[in-house]
Amino acid sequence: MSAYEDLMRFEHDTQALAQVAGRLGWDQETMMPRGAADQRGEEMAAIEGVLHARRIDPRMGDWLAQIDDATLDQVGQAQMRHIRKTYARTMKIPADLATKLARVTSRAQGLWAQARADEDVAAFLPVLEEVVALKREEGKALANGGDVYDAMVDDYEPEMTAAELAAMFDAMRPRLVALRAAVLAAEPPRALSGHFPSEMQMELTRKLAVTFGYDMRHGRVDKAVHPFSSGSGHDVRITTRTNELDPFNCFYSTIHEVGHGCYEQNIDDAYLLTPLGGGVSMGVHESQSRIYENQLGRSRAFTGWLYGQMRDSFGDFGIDSEDEFYRTVNRVHDGYIRTEADEVQYNLHIMLRFDLERALMAGDLQVADLEAAWNDRFSADFGYAVDRPSNGCLQDVHWSVGLFGYFPTYSLGNVYAGCLHEALRKAVPDLDDQLARGETGGATAWLRDNVQRHGGLFRPAEVIERASGRVPGPEPLLTYLEAKFAALYGV
């Protein structure tokens, strides 16, 4: 056991340093002065160099060789599964490549934000070219002759392949397209209109965060260009954004990020600063954010409560009843922005990005042609043209920071959420009565006990199967969407 104990002590400090790196990233998106971007890139590169060195430290190899996993308990075996995988992955990545990626993606993030604000794709493409080249190099090293994109997906959803994702998306697309066509042919609900001051939005959004179980003693809510969650354990931070003409953007971004944040806050404290102390995969992570945001937050029961909260905050804002408000919240509408997409069309946004980034990594699409490829695909999929870059290929932060292989986990999270919601409804039969009172505890406690507290103890698909009692698949999600929107739109 000495080798295992020595390894876990060493891993504790590595995990702590990784949290420091994450905090630098949080600061960069929320509070860092714009002019500090180049220096921050050097800081991120330096800490990545330290982390990379620790992950390939010769002592790691010695400890791993000495440890017989079969002699460990369930937790120890799970710890070793993660550590061995990280060690094998890191050994394939040259240290100079790891630091180059940290430096370039930190710089690219700032350039992306400025290019997005300026609607200037050309200003971003040179650094994106660098990111893509480095990620291809990394992917080839990881794939070891296999599929480069599979190696990237495995970083975010272990044991998942691009072929499996493509097959799932191919199965989902026809029913989603048919549902969208039927809904868009029906009379739409009234759109929200009016002026909703940012300060008042932030006041209510913090109340929503607490309503969904986010622990403000170990977290905070700030504003960022692109909402995100950061950290784990006892320091988990979320961000949102405001638009004074559209408070739903703020409220549902917050509920979404609270799903991520609560997952991290609710992991068993025994796993703190160990490989089990974070979400097991981005697909499982996204299942939490999506079920909080959609199946709970956009339900008829909860929107009835939210309607009263909004009237208390903003007065009469032109919606006359809870039923009308529910239809407005769930309005299916044309739009460019993935994070603002309705439930019917959201996955179509992901499929677009999945195909484009897969082509980028394969070398079938060049960075110089990305904007045109995006615009052509968007027009084909949604039936209207992209009007400006911030509504097109500049809208997401992911590619600037090198998160290739990440996008498909958003749809995978929707699929997982569909399975979990089906089981949750059976486990908490009075769920709607609770939500109508603004009480989410029955739902969030079930998710905490069945998903969140386990952290990385089980494999991703195993987490969902244990919680839902079924092998993960898209049927529950599609059934939920078809039933909900058929009723809403009378189709």
From TrEMBL:
Which of this chain's residues are annotated to bind Zn(2+)? Answer: H256, H260, E286
Q: Which domain of life is it from?
A: Bacteria
Q: Which cofactor does it need?
A: Zn(2+)
Instruction: Give the keywords, sorted.
Output: Carboxypeptidase, Hydrolase, Metal-binding, Metalloprotease, Protease, Zinc
Gene Ontology molecular-function annotations: metal ion binding; metallocarboxypeptidase activity
Q: Active site at which residues?
A: E257 (proton donor/acceptor)
Q: Which GO terms describe its biological process?
A: proteolysis
Q: Does the keyword Chloroplast apply?
A: no
The catalysed reaction is: Release of a C-terminal amino acid with broad specificity, except for -Pro
Query: What is its biological role?
Result: Broad specificity carboxypetidase that releases amino acids sequentially from the C-terminus, including neutral, aromatic, polar and basic residues.
Report the sequence similarity comment from the record.
Belongs to the peptidase M32 family.
- Put simply, this protein is called Metal-dependent carboxypeptidase
